[in-house]
Design goal:
Elements: E1 3-10, E2 27-30, H1 36-43, E3 47-55, H2 57-62, H3 64-77, E4 82-89, H4 92-109, E5 113-118, H5 122-127, E6 132-136, H6 143-160, H7 166-169, H8 186-199, E7 228-233, E8 237-239, E9 255-258, E10 270-272, H9 280-284, H10 292-300, E11 306-313, H11 321-337, E12 342-346
Parallel strand pairs: 1-3, 1-4, 4-5, 5-6, 7-11, 7-12
Antiparallel strand pairs: 2-3, 8-10, 9-11
């Protein structure tokens, strides 16, 4: 039996363009487009990609409900047995779109959907419980392994009605508990693991814990009155017009803007680019997120020596951890070079 598959991709993989074309509205094309050729080879005679639906990452992020409805309508026309989305690798907005589309397909159309993402893509945490997500490399160089894994998982679900365990199906753990039977009770298995650990032998835990970074806190400032203080925000406050086009979600960049001589973040000059909260209050008074007014008062009062002449800003909404680390490393290096003593981090 040959199954009918619909493929969802973004503007980049459709060959339309990069960030300058991220505002492309949803469109539908018959047959295979872009990476669909690799899926065609992976599916062989078992499945056929009957249609491809495309949407710009920026358009989807800014019109999520409307875009999802449009995309579902386009997918439904093809009468597909399943949908594959991506793979999105570590592209945050693309991953969010793939997860949203896949979840909506399962809920509204009642057919299975599979996507692929890098483990740190924000779409993983958002949709791992509801969508089967194949683990991929962080960039498109991993497409040679991502596509066969996604194709296999899709066919397994269509043929068997189940994906099996994460190890069997090759997808990221969903955090769901499933009853199973074992020859030994839990106490015996726990003792066996403990003995192996004490002997330095390999063992596999039945309840893996998340791996969190641990950062040692910096030493406190001992002479605050002679300190230079900087302000960095993930609340998305930017000069009016968003000159660097920082994305509303899943940011790929940050902005650096002068506040030399600026006494307050006034409504006429600043606004938020953030798409993850109601911008009304931040736009009415940007100081609520970027408190230049209060910091200037503290500076005049001598509570610290100087407010650094620049502020750094980005959007934390769905931004990948890897991107955030990169931003922080670059910003920190500049602040250290310029003799800044401490940073006030503001969010939403």
């Amino acid at each position: 039996m040959s199954y009918k598959i619909v493929h969802y991709i973004n503007q980049f993989f459709a060959g339309i363009g990069g960030e300058e074309k991220a505002d492309v509205a949803p469109e539908s094309r018959p047959g295979v487009v872009g990476p669909g050729m690799a899926f065609k080879a992976a599916f062989g005679q078992n499945a056929e990609i009957v249609g491809t639906v495309i949407c710009g990452d920026g358009y989807f992020a800014e019109n999520m409900e409307e875009a999802t409805a449009q995309i579902l309508k386009m997918i439904s026309v093809f009468g597909a047995d399943a949908v594959i989305a991506g793979p999105a690798f570590n592209a945050g907005r693309y991953g969010t779109a793939c997860g949203t589309v896949a979840e909506a397909v399962q809920r509204e159309l009642g057919i299975p959907a599979v996507t692929g993402m890098y483990a740190e893509n924000p779409g993983v945490d958002m949709y791992r419980k509801s969508v089967y997500i194949v683990s991929t490399e962080d960039s498109a160089r991993g497409i040679k392994t991502a596509v066969p894994a996604m194709a296999k998982l899709t066919l397994d679900i269509l043929k068997n009605g189940t994906a099996g365990s994460p190890e069997e199906g090759g997808y990221i753990e969903r955090g769901l508990r499933v009853n199973c039977f074992n020859d030994k009770i839990g106490a015996q298995r726990a003792v066996d693991m403990l003995i192996k650990k004490l002997k330095g032998e390999p063992f596999k835990t039945e309840y893996p814990m998340p791996d969190f970074d641990r950062v040692a806190p910096a030493q406190p400032i001992t002479d605050m009155k002679n300190a230079t203080i900087a302000v960095v925000t993930s609340g998305g406050i930017v000069p009016k017009g968003n000159p660097d086009r920082i994305e509303a979600s899943s940011a790929t960049k940050y902005g650096t803007y002068s506040i030399a001589g600026v006494q307050s973040a006034e409504e006429v000059a600043y606004a938020t680019a953030h798409g993850g909260y109601d911008p009304t209050y931040a736009n009415h008074d940007p100081n609520r997120v970027l408190p230049i007014d209060e910091l200037r008062e503290m500076e005049r009062a001598g509570e610290f020596k100087k407010l650094y002449d620049y502020f750094f800003t980005t959007v934390g909404n769905g931004t990948p951890v890897a991107a955030a680390k990169k931003f922080g490393t670059e910003i920190g290096a500049r602040l250290k070079k310029d003799g800044v003593d401490a940073v006030i981090l503001t969010s939403t």
